[in-house]
Amino acid sequence: MPPGTSEPIADWWGVIKSTDAGAQYDDYFERQDLGGTIYFGIDSMAPEVKSQIESLRDSGKIVHLYGTLFSNVPDYNGSQIVVERIEVKE
Questions:
Q1: How far is 20 from 62, CA to CA, in rounded Å?
Q2: CB 44, CB 67: distance < 8 Å
Q3: pLDDT digits (tens, 9 = 90+) for 5-41
Q4: What is the pTM of this model?
Q5: Could you say which of 1, 8, 50, 80 is the most buried, measured as most Cβ atoms within 10 Å of its Cβ?
Q6: Contacts of 40 (CB under 8 A, 6+ apart)
């Protein structure tokens, strides 16, 4: 994905994890649906989704994300998913 671009994402799944104490960013998304692991910063503009992200950190629950991926931004691994909706796999 070229720097400074964005693209919609749908049904990416993985887990939300906290960064280590003192890290520049507070959490990240570990994408697991491609057979490997890829890391992305994660945030939301919607207060209820932001709260959901915080409550799912380090829970080990598989989540499915829907939103927009932005590249070359100041967040974990230089990218950020701005989440519009989260579905938790039960």
A1: 20
A2: yes
A3: 899 999 999 999 999 999 999 999 999 999 889 999 9
A4: 0.92
A5: 80
A6: 28, 29, 31, 69, 75, 76, 77, 79, 80, 81
